[in-house]
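Re: weekly structure request thread

Next one in the queue (111 aa):
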Amino acid sequence: MTDTIKDRIDILVKSTPVVLFMKGTPMFPQCGFSSTACAILDRLGVEFEGVDVLADPAIRQGVKEYSDWPTVPQLYIGGEFVGGSDIMMEMFQAGELTAMLEQAGVPRAAA
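Done, posted below.
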């Protein structure tokens, strides 16, 4: 991974409270795992930045090296790597994802 790609990912992750590197967009996820990840974030009522790794092969590979995690989607909250859709689902069901969002000061939409 070049420093430029790492810098681009670093800026995205650290300048946006919730970032999801995914296949497709939040409106049109291009795989089931990305769709699940978006659904969880939507259910929690948080705004997030979706980064389509299919549109940029350098980001697609770079984010895997950045996190040392082999798959996409990848969720970052408050600059910290959380995990993929399976981890997100486990954390969501346990209430841990909500707690993490609150701890990071991420605003949620009114229910």
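The chain has a mean pLDDT of 94. Residues 3-103 form a domain with the Glutaredoxin fold (CATH 3.40.30.10).
Next request, please.
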